[in-house]
Amino acid sequence: MADIELVPNKNFPAKNDHPDLVGELTTLNLGPTHPATHGIFQNILQMDGEKIVSGEQTIGYIHRAFEKIAERRPFYQITTLTDRMNYCSSPINNFGWHMTVEKLLGIEVPKRAQYIRVILMELARISDHLICNGILGVDSGAYSGFLYLMEKREEIYEIYEEICGARLTTNMGRIGGMERDFSNEALRKIREMLKSLPPVLKEFENLFNRNRIFMDRTINVGPISAERALSYGFTGPNLRAAGVDYDVRVMNPYSSYEDFDFIIPIGQSGDTYDRFMVRNEEMWQSMKIIDQAMNNLPEGPFFADAPEYYLPPKQEVYRSMEALIYHFKIVMGEIDAPVGEVYHSVEGGNGELGFYLISDGGRTPYRLHFRRPSFIYYQAFPEMCKGTTLSDAILIMSSLNVIAGELDA
Amino acid sequence: MLSNQEVAEELIKKFGNDVYDFEDPYGLLTLTTTREQIIPILEYLFHHDRFKINFLTDITGIHYPDSPGQEFAVVYHVHSLTQNFRVRLKVFLAEADIHVPTATPVYASANWMERETYDFFGIIFDGHPDLRRILNIDEMDYFPMRKQYPMEDATRQDKIDALFGR
Question: For residue A254, what are the contacts with CB-CB under 8 A and spacing of at least 6?
Fold first, then answer.
């Protein structure tokens, strides 16, 4: 946070309640469609020269009423809604939703499917952090790091494509497991990824970590204390940068995360630099998890024995009566779920992604609520950027990794 | 490691008849309270020297149009990060008197969660610093997550539930 010397302007004396301010206040509309917001939301900033006096956010520009739509859809059709929340890491959202439904139904997923999910979720986390950190570089004026990383994200999207056929809105996996096993090509691509990502990440870190200009731009910019971060409901890398080691993967392990050996990186001051460093280190840890999962990938089925919820194999549908009936019932959404109330959370790219599901015994949820980390921590933005300059505010917003799709749901 | 039983007993000892309907669906302690007691309970759990339930995970609303006098529920999920213990608190409200005190003095994050709940259900949080719509447009004159607003156009003829045996 650079200290700005305020020079009193005799022509424009202060016309507000802040005696320490000099000139007139300027209202600046940052957004809704501003290149630096990386999404559609608006910040109305009151500026005294280059200094931000107060900020107010307007969100909801891409609100798509997912919670209302979900009340009309059978459970398996809700996966496509979750894709569109944090679209930088959609597999995590998909699997989080599947695990919520599996918890409601009491389905035990085989080990192999759990490991496959872990590999894909960690790939998604890497692609999410790659974008966040790459864009942070762009916003501070360093474009080249972003270009190196984009190539790697493209390779992760090619892995998605190999596994489910889609790249951004993946709709990956099914309730009860995966829709298909890893192909040889997918395994080859993941192994290649594990080999080719470290040098690129290393080079990226060489460009940024001890870069004098980057450090001056980010250290002590937008710091938040652990107490304030907890009060504001921060989770994920942003909370860990403030020094709280809360990670859903460790505290409430799901999908066999307890089998893997990894550390949770934490920061100290919760400033932009710490958030950047925490995300960088998390990518290394994610690679470590993927490596362990690939080496210990268990043999066995990749879907659970849950005929009422998991689509039967196509050959079976043509041959057996039961499979045909189940196929029809699942596709038409004729399966009634049991009555229940369940909260399940996963560690999304930005923090604790929670699903609060109430089923009244019908074919659709009675009520479904998404706990979206971006939505909850973005309310701290005015407090974090107060007193900084506009260019710092852009960096703070960028390092918070606010994804408009997740913000608005 | 805290058990549901332990926390429930402490709450009953402190709040007596104001906490009731204890359940633990899927292992998560769920209880109902009155709107007069919800903020004292949140504060009590926050400052309790052993529970330290000081993280607000979520606030949301539910609409039950078929239960007269208890049409709306506000659901609070709170979490103790030191003990890894979650509690779900519910407050039921009547449609005629749809007021509940705000949790913003206890948790800063409650601000937008309550605005969202107001936006979709019309639940009024008394004492909230800035209770406006957040995701929907300001001109909207109804609360869209209430059950009386069906998802699809009621005049559509090609999606009659009876045709599918529902």
Answer: A99, A248, A344, A346
Strand order from edge to edge, sheet including A339-347: A339-347, A352-360, A367-371
Instruction: Say yes or no to pLDDT of A12 above 60.
Output: no
Which positions in chain A touch B28 (Cβ < 8 Å)? 343
Write down the pTM of the prediction: 0.92
**Rounded CA gap, B105 and A109, in Å?**
42
Q: How many other C-beta atoms can be found within 10 angstroms of the C-beta atom of residue B116? A: 25
What pLDDT score does A33 carry?
84
Nearest chain A Cα to B137, which residue? A60
Q: Which amino acid is located at B140 in the chain?
A: M
Report d(CA A163, CA A172) in Å as an integer. 8
| Mutation site, B46, B55, B64, B149, interface A, largest A CB count within 10 A | B55
Residues 98-127 of A with CB under 8 A from B: 103-104
Picking from B57, B139, B148 by the largest number of A CB atoms within 10 A of its own CB, the best residue to mutate is B57
Among B62, B72, B91, B66, which residue's Cα sits nearest to residue A368?
A: B62
Asked if A233 lies within 8 A of B84 by C-beta distance, the reply is: no
pLDDT band at A1 (very low <50, low <70, confident <90, very high): very low
Q: Could you tell me if the ipTM is greater than 0.85?
A: yes
Of all residues in chain B, the one with the smallest CA distance to A102 is B26
pLDDT at A152: 92
Chain B residues with CB-CB distance to A72 below 8 A: 151-152
For the cut 70, the answer to whether the pLDDT of residue A172 exceeds it is: yes
Residues B60-73: what's their mean pLDDT? 93
Superfamily of domain A66-305+334-371: Cytochrome-c3 Hydrogenase, chain B (1.10.645.10)
Residues belonging to chain B with any Cβ–Cβ distance to chain A shorter than 8 Å: 25-26, 28, 30, 54-58, 60, 62-63, 75, 77, 81, 84, 86, 88, 107-109, 111-113, 116, 120, 133-137, 144-145, 149, 151-152, 164-166
Length of chain A: 409
Rounded to 5 degrees, φ, ψ at A294 are -65, -40
CB A238 within 8 A of CB A275: yes
**What pLDDT does residue B152 have?**
66
Q: In chain B, whose CA is at the least distance from the CA of A365?
A: B62
- Sign (positive/negative) of CA torsion A233, A380, A375, A84? negative
**How do beta strands A42-48 and B99-101 pair?**
unpaired
- Cα of first residue to Cα of last residue in chain A, in angstroms, is 33
